[in-house]
Specification:
Elements (H helix, E strand, L loop, with lengths): L4 E9 L5 H9 L17 E7 L2 E7 L9 H13 L5 E7 L9 H8 L4 E7 L9 H11 L4 E4 L8 H11 L17 H16 L9 E10 L4 E10 L2 H8 L4 H18 L2 E10 L7 H6 L6
Parallel strand pairs: 1-3, 1-4, 4-5, 5-6, 8-9
Antiparallel strand pairs: 2-3, 7-8
The protein binds guanosine-5'-triphosphate and magnesium ion (MG).
């Protein structure tokens, strides 16, 4: 019998290239939130996939980007840190031509790491296949990638092949996490992220990436199969607060409804969700507010 394999696979890349979508597709479960807006993911999120003979531990990371706020800096340092102990590094890019210099920062961060580098070209559902060859050629000049794999994280094309290849590169090791565990994130965190996702999706045009969500209370009532959740959405300005609430509270209602539905599926319980919106001026620049809102520097 082949020996058991287990190891860490970090997904790195610029904002919005589809890292979280790939993470979820690889896991076969929605753990990370996804939106059309860049800089959606702010934390390192761990997800575990058990297959016959192997355990793959994936790390989803914030996009590596230029940004002026302290929040931006913390996000980038979280992403770079997540590459440090990985056995395989998935450098994810989009199958749309872009100035390749923009990828320098990510490549530079990868060069210091011991993990085997893969180039994964995502969103191939959006382009004709022959467009990929010149791109591959460009990237090969940038870094000696061990494998180059075109995929669509959205349709799943190429993702099984990617998973098979990953297993080949994992070290021989017993499982690193218990078999029943799928993530290291708490239910509170996952629930707060779902709310942030609905804000990003439903106030996409109006609210830039300056919302944070804190779960104030999470009370289970097992006899009723119910969870009562109270959460606060922080925004930076009063104008944003007004937009989020909407006319007659309509927007907030729609956000709450969408978040609640998904929570119920995920928690397999009924959910009573109460949302508040609070202005916290310049929280994305304030070290103490960042710590309090869940974006510490570690
Ligand atoms: N057409 C297409 N769209 C995709 C694919 N993968 C992801 N997307 C879309 O790209 C957008 C960004 O996806 P995310 O998974 O949030 O990207 P990310 O890299 O995690 O972004 P950040 O967390 O902001 O760094 C979303 O609108 C996805 O639906 C794909 O294979 N094809
Ligand atoms: Mg993401």
């Amino acid at each position: 019998m082949a020996p058991f394999k287990a190891g860490f696979v970090s997904i790195l890349g610029r904002s919005n290239v589809g890292k979280s979508t790939l993470f979820n597709t690889l896991l076969g479960d929605k753990i990370a939130i996804v939106s059309q807006k860049p800089q959606t993911t702010r934390n390192r999120i761990l997800g575990i996939k058990n297959v016959e003979g192997a355990q793959l531990v994936f790390l989803d990371t914030p996009g590596i980007h230029e940004g002026r706020s302290r929040l931006n800096q913390r996000m980038v340092s979280v992403a770079i840190g997540a590459g440090q102990d990985a056995d395989v590094l998935l450098f994810l890019v989009e199958a749309v031509p872009r100035p390749i210099e923009d990828d320098r920062k990510v490549i530079d961060s990868m060069e210091k790491n011991r993990g085997v580098p893969f180039l994964v070209i995502n969103k191939i559902d959006l382009v004709r296949k022959e467009k990929l060859l010149p791109m591959i050629d460009q990237y090969q000049h940038l870094h000696p990638f061990q494998e180059i794999i075109p995929i669509s994280a959205l349709t799943g094309e190429g993702v099984d092949r990617l998973a098979d290849l990953l297993i080949q590169y994992l070290p021989e090791s017993p499982p690193l996490f218990p078999e029943e565990m799928i993530t290291d994130q708490t239910e509170r965190f996952l629930v707060s992220e779902l709310i942030r996702e609905k804000v990003l999706q439903q106030a996409y045009q109006e609210i830039p990436s300056s919302t944070a969500v804190v779960i104030e209370s999470f009370k289970e009532q097992p006899e009723k199969n119910l969870v009562v959740i109270r959460a606060t959405i922080f925004v930076e300005r009063d104008s944003q607060r007004k937009i989020l609430i909407g006319k007659g509270g309509q927007k907030m209602k729609a956000i709450g409804e969408a978040a609640r539905k998904e929570m119920e599926t995920f928690l397999e319980k009924r959910v009573f969700l109460e949302l508040w919106v609070t202005v916290e001026k310049n929280w994305t620049q304030d070290v103490r507010a960042l710590d309090r809102l869940g974006y510490s520097s570690q």
